[in-house]
Every structure is written in C-alpha cells, then in structure tokens.
Amino acid sequence: MVTKSEASPCVVVLGTGGTIAGQAASAGDNLGYVAGQIGVEALVQQLALPDGLTLKSEQVAQLDSKDMDFSVWQALAARCSHWLARDDVAGVVITHGTDTLEETAFFLQSVLAPTKPVVLTCAMRPATALAPDGPQNLRDAIAVAATPGPHGVMAVCAGTVHGAFDVQKVHTYRLDAFASGDAGPLGYVEEGAVRWLRTGPDNDREAARRLACVLRTDVADWPRVEILTSHAGAGGRLVEALLQERRSGVAQAVQGLVLAATGNGSLHQGLESAALTAQEEGVAVVRATRCCEGRILATPQAVLRDAGALTPVKARIALMLALLLAMPGA
Ligand code: ASP
What we know:
By secondary structure, the protein is of the alpha/beta class.
C-alpha cells in the first residue's frame, strides 16, 4: 500500500502486469522485454502525484496480458467490487497489458457497470525504456479515476479516454495504440484535467446478476466459447471437430461459437452450414463482424443472430456471460 496523503479522494491501483510493468536488459530495447516484472507499488511510487490524493495499491496478478485468463478476471471483479463499495474510494485504476486490455475492460463493464470510474491503463514501451510511456499513462488514469462525475469502465492511453464497449487496440507499436472506432473517445486528459466529449454507458440492471454469477462459479465451469473466422476458403471442419468433441461427452466441450464474419455479418457457405448444424445441436452461435469499424445491420433472411457493434472478442465475452447466467442454478 502506498499513501501520498491521507486526504480524499482515494484511488486504488490494481496491478496485473503487462508492458507497463515490463523490463528489458537494455534501455534501448523496446521489444525484447519481459512483461509483468515490476510490482504495482513500485510503478506508483515513481509518479509525481498532485497533493491531496490518497493512493492504495494491490497486486492482483503479474502476467503478460496475452495470457489473460478467467481466474484473473474473477479476481479483478472481486477486488474492484470490494473497493468500489467503499465510500472513501473515488475510483479504481488497473494497470494492464495492451494485448487483451479491451477484453478485460468489456468483461468488467459487463459485470460491474460501476457508478464510479474504473480505469484501465497500459504502456507500449517497457518501464526500462529510454522514454517509457507508462508513467504518464498511469498518472492520467489516476487523474480520471479521481475526477468526480464520470462512471463506467474506461481505458486511458496516450492522453485519450476510451469507453469499454468501444475501445480496441489498433496498432502494433505506436504509443497511441487504441481507438474507439465510430463512437470516438470519451474524452482527453490534458495536463491532469479531463475534457469529456460524451458520457459513458447507461445503467445496466443485469450487471449485478452477472457479478454474483462470476464470483460464485468456479472458473473451470465458465462456458467455453470459441471464435472461428470466416475467410476465403473457410469451411466447416473446425466446427465439425468441435461438435465431434461435444458429442463424445468430454468435459468443457464447446457451448458457444462466435463467427468472425465478413462485412455486414456474412459467412462463407461452408462455415455457415456447419454453424447451422451446431446451432441445431444446441450450441449458441453468434456472428460478429471482423471489420474494425461499423456494426452489423440486421437483415430479414439472417438465421444466425448477430452481435451488433461488438467485435468478435467482445461478442465472445457477452456470449460466455449469457451462457453462464443461463446455467442451472445461476
Ligand atoms: N504483451 C504485452 C501485454 O499485453 C503487451 C503490452 O502490454 O503492451 O501484456
């Protein structure tokens, strides 16, 4: 725990690893580093924070976010909900790798729908770089979390605030690696002050049920949802392999399929016909567009439902949570 001052507001920083906590052998190396090496307390201690801000930090995980898994999500949901319930806490910041940041943000928004800010932040360069971007991103994220008014799960990177529903990693190495597509960002952080462009998500009455469900269900029992991409030459063999596994009665057989569809949700005919068989056999099937902008507009002839504006990775989380809620006893 790190405390800058005993005065309000209090911001809690939860560490999960990522490049922001990464270390390389030399300061000139922005690529050959190991993510998730430096503890969150050390990350917070190096910041020159404004007076009148109380900070607490807690290490929830220490990993490269390419390896993110359900158990870390469950722990994050529990810790966020614990801290957000406290009157003295203004908001929560989560340090996270960039690779799956948008998935964690969407998951947390779906189960918390917080009325306080929960702000994920990250870095594109390791902490040991000549000019690391992590400290400024973390400072900005803390400023957003301490600002009264905004709510919901957000991501802050390169001075831009993105909403959990819209944020996507769009670049492999630029420091400004995230975008919000058609929706645009929620705002900007300008020298510690936040300039809002639009408001965050509406209330979500289902979030409390989802949270209760993810906290009490062993992660080994969270429904398995796979993503398959439609592309030139795509066929139904992967779907068929998943169905064979399911028919054989193995544990953790597939329960849901997200089809990363072309354009306005169209599928290669081979993949579509196998997906229809899967649907007939009880697998929940959803189409999500693989386009990086836009939403699927409904067509009367569609027989497989669509995920609207959700990307395939977010549609997978939405479907997994819907299946979790539909489990007997949920
Ligand atoms: N592989 C790293 C991670 O997602 C990349 C990053 O943080 O930028 O943890």
